[in-house]
Amino acid sequence: MPFPEKLKQLAKEKGLSVGGVSYQAYSPEGRGTSPDTLRKVMAGKRGLNDALIEGVARVLDVPQEVFVEYRLSKLRRSLDERAVGFDEAAATLQLIEEALQTAMGQRTAERVAPRAAHRAIARGSAHGQHGKDRAS
Q: What SS3 class is residue 32?
């Protein structure tokens, strides 16, 4: 769920308005997320950053990771060889690729098995076998 929708949902669950969250996220010293900044983010006129998400999460008393954009930002950083070094970025990439291959293998098996069974039944029906052993 995109940040604006997730923020609205969480604020409602906590009995707060988005405006209330924005005012609480902005400190009297002028640090944090200004209400105007959050309003622009909610309207899609300004991008997100980790500090903004962290401030909002603090006010809502939730982990920053509930916001997909925060997790994506951390993932992008973990793949940036300038930020974490080539070896660490390459190791992270390898882990992601292995996880994707495993997930795709499972999904492929889940998709292929029912289709293969359906084709086998259809072939048997086409030859008058109706699922009987075709070797007889």
A: strand
